[in-house]
């Protein structure tokens, strides 16, 4: 880990993780390009809405294909998440701390 945009040890690399709700295992990891400090997500039908706190946006990405429960404990599937739309307001910035959906 290096010096990221949010302090020592911060890599500045966000990811969406699919978890097994029974075992807590990470089933898949999907990199999120061009987000900063994204840490709240809500799934609605075929989309995942993610709070991009660093930029003051809500990013809508396509839901990645589900991973089977017997998959490796941690795997990266494909490339970065496919962004469908970015919702933002010019007035929102990092100090506004957009983090709840």
From TrEMBL:
This protein is called what? Answer: SMP-30/Gluconolactonase/LRE-like region domain-containing protein
Per the UniProt record, the source organism is Zooxanthella nutricula
């Amino acid at each position: 880990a290096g010096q990221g945009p949010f302090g020592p040890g911060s890599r500045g690399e966000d990811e969406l993780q699919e978890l097994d709700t029974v075992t807590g295992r990470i089933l898949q990891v999907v990199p999120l390009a061009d987000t900063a400090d994204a840490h709240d997500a809500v799934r609605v039908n075929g989309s995942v809405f993610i709070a991009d706190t660093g930029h003051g946006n809500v990013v809508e990405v396509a839901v990645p294909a589900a991973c089977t429960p017997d998959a490796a404990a941690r795997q990266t599937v494909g490339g970065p998440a496919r962004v469908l739309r970015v919702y933002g307001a010019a007035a929102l910035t990092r100090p506004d701390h957009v983090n709840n959906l």
